[in-house]
Design brief:
single chain, alpha/beta, Rossmann fold, seven-stranded mixed β-sheet, three-stranded antiparallel β-sheet, 21 helices, 12 strands, 10% strand, VWF_A
Length: 649
């Protein structure tokens, strides 16, 4: 036994030896390709890969198909209609669809039934089918209700010009009819009991019968109580004249005619609206009826501070409110109302009718050198803010009974509508913008201040009389000049925010206020200058009969460069109003202001000509006229008329 050690072989690690190729033969090419590639340099491998990619991409190709556009000719080819005749057509059973159901398709059925001349047979079939159609006999349609033929326009929340009380009543009739078509309705007429409204109340009472006669058909279609009415009045207090809603037309008209006059001068309109709403709301809700409020007045109401809670209540209960009233004066609180006194004469008495905005936005300044009452009492064309807002927020209408003397194009004025948003939003805008705040503050100040008119005529029989007249004229104008200077200073503070004004109404109002305040400042300053010069060195008369001096507007501005600069700035503002807001009340007022020169000039006169005209040239006529005037003066002083107590409208 051999002593040679036996070493075990592990099957996990041992591997069979690689057989060597037979001697004399070469190894295969791909046998050691990996070894050869691994031994090749990197650039060769990269070149080979890129060459292979290029060969692959080179094998991809695409075709470009070029379509030729056929030439368009003006000649049309003639069609041979013989090719489309059906005389030689052979109909087979192969047409139709391949449905497994043994029913011929519509196309197949039509094909098998086609005759030799299908066009003629088809026309005969169509004529036969049409001939069978008979006009159906319709039942007679009853004519519609006449009220249903009235076109319903969406006018809610607007100010309308119906053409007086009669037109306003016609529109209200349509609104009541629209409510009746929806459901049964309770209408509450709320009348202002003031003295100034007597004629309007009587006019509405006269039309009550026609109102309810027109609504009678709609009422009968529902029930006898479909339309019920309440009459209430307001002044210093509120009173309901009909305890319960009624349909008695005669009773309603009689109660309106006999409304007792309230002489307090107070109009608690919003308190009255809340009172009647609370009183009849529960009954209206229980009966599921509509409720409408119709306010008849000619003023704004003294308790307009209650507008916000009143609006909220009526909106919450969907109670539409309408107002038959007057237009607010343009940018002013006080209007004028004609009233016939017991003695028979007519007087223009002040009434609270405005403004059309929350606060006044127009300076209340006179026109020096001319009287323009038409501009001072110009209508705004809109109702007072509080009542118009109440109508707008509840979906009603403010109906104007008075027609303004000057009408402006409504398409232009649409850009200048008053702001009917809540008072809190309006006041917040005043805090944010200094120009708005300055305008409202200055306009409010001029509502309270009395505007003195300058003295233009100065007697001058001698120098002492002239000096006394000049001194008397200077005192009120000195006070007025102080107020005008304050207005200009206030508006000048707002000029910083003038570029921030984007609303056309605010732009026009501020520019007009600034232009007018500057113009009045130039006139007042120049007025004092020419008076001071005349007082220090009186001018001699040129005419032998002249015995007084008159100040007339002139383009020559006294006072030096400072006053001329003020006048130029005023002219710039006023011209911008005319150019940028043509066709509006602001432009009209600016034109009138510019039509009066801002300087002053002296003009000598003969007092008799001033008093009696050209007849004063004859001495005999002058003596006669003076005697008559003296007699009238004695009559006035001998029997003075007692002071009359003017009524409060």
């Amino acid at each position: 036994m051999s002593s040679q050690a036996i070493h075990p072989v592990s099957t996990a690690t041992a591997s069979a030896p690689t057989p060597e190729p037979p001697q004399g033969r070469e190894k295969p090419f791909f046998h050691d390709l990996g070894d050869r590639v691994g031994a090749a340099p990197a650039w060769a491998i990269s070149a080979a890969v890129h060459l292979a990619l290029l060969l692959c991409f080179g094998g991809i190709y695409y075709e470009i198909v070029i379509e030729t556009v056929p030439d368009i000719t003006s000649e049309m080819e003639e069609v041979d209609f013989e090719e489309y005749k059906f005389e030689n057509a052979v109909v087979t059973e192969e047409i139709g669809n391949d449905s497994p159901i043994n029913i011929a398709s519509p196309s197949k059925a039509a094909a098998t039934e086609a005759g030799m001349k299908p066009q003629v047979e088809m026309q005969q079939q169509i004529h036969k089918e049409i001939a069978k159609v008979e006009t159906p006999v319709l039942d007679e349609i009853p004519p519609p209700n006449q009220m249903e033929l009235v076109e319903q326009l969406d006018l809610s929340g607007t100010t309308e010009h119906p053409g007086g009380v009669e037109g306003a009543v016609d529109i209200l009739t349509q609104e009541i009819a629209a409510s009746l078509r929806e459901r049964e309705t309770v209408v509450i007429w709320l009348f202002d009991a003031s003295l100034s409204l007597k004629d309007r109340r009587d006019a509405i009472a006269d039309r009550f019968e026609s109102i309810y006669a027109q609504l009678g058909q709609l009422e009968e279609e529902r029930s006898k109580s479909a339309l019920e009415t309440v009459i209430a009045i307001f002044g210093n207090d509120v009173a309901v004249l009909t305890e319960r809603p009624t349909s008695d037309i005669a009773e309603l008209a009689e109660k309106v005619r006999n409304i007792p006059a309230d002489e307090s001068g107070n109009e608690s309109v919003f308190m009255a609206v809340n009172h009647v709403t609370d009183r009849f709301l529960r009954e209206r809700t229980r009966a599921r009826k509509n409720m409408m409020l119709i306010v008849v007045t000619d003023e704004r109401g003294d308790d307009y501070a209650l507008v916000e809670p009143t609006v909220s209540k009526l909106k919450r209960y969907s109670i539409k409110t309408y107002c038959v009233g007057d237009a607010a004066p343009f940018g002013r609180e006080k209007g004028r109302k004609a009233y016939v006194m017991p003695e028979g004469d007519t007087m223009m008495l002040p009434v609270d009718q405005g403004p059309e905005t929350v606060y006044p936005e127009r300076l209340q300044l006179g026109f020096w050198g001319g009287r323009f009452n038409d501009l001072e009492l110009m209508s705004s064309g809109y109702g007072p803010y509080a009542l118009t807002r109440l109508c707008a927020e509840t979906g009603g209408l403010y109906l104007l009974t008075d027609e303004p003397r000057v009408r402006f194009d409504p398409t232009i004025m649409r850009r200048y509508l008053p702001d009917y948003r809540p008072i809190a939003i309006y006041e917040r805008a005043l805090v944010v913008n200094k120009a708005k705040a300055a305008l409202v503050q200055s306009a409010t100040a001029t509502q309270a201040d009395s505007v003195p008119q300058p003295t233009l005529l100065f007697p001058a029989k001698d120098d002492n009389e002239l000096r006394r007249a000049v001194t008397d004229a200077q005192q009120p104008i000195a006070v007025y000049e102080y107020h005008v200077n304050r207005l200009v200073a206030l508006l000048s503070e707002g000029e910083k925010d003038r570029p921030k004004l984007t609303e056309p109404r605010w732009q026009a109002s501020f520019d007009l206020a600034m232009g007018r305040a500057l113009a009045q400042q130039a006139r007042a300053f120049g007025y004092n200058v020419v008076l001071a010069d005349m007082k220090s060195s009186p001018k001699p008369f040129q005419g032998p009969q002249s015995d007084q001096w008159r100040l007339v507007p002139s383009t020559e501005i006294a006072g030096g460069p400072r006053v001329r600069k003020i006048a130029e700035k005023a002219e710039e503002y006023l011209k911008s109003v005319i150019d940028d807001h043509s066709g509006t009340p602001w432009a009209m007022i600016a034109e009138r202001e510019l039509s009066i020169p801002m300087g002053w000039a002296w003009q000598e006169q003969y007092s008799m000509v001033e008093r009696f005209g050209e007849r004063a040239r004859d001495p005999d006529v002058v003596r006669l006229l003076l005697a008559e005037e003296e007699q009238r003066r004695e009559e006035r002083t001998a029997t003075p008329k007692p002071k009359r107590n003017l009524p409060k409208l």
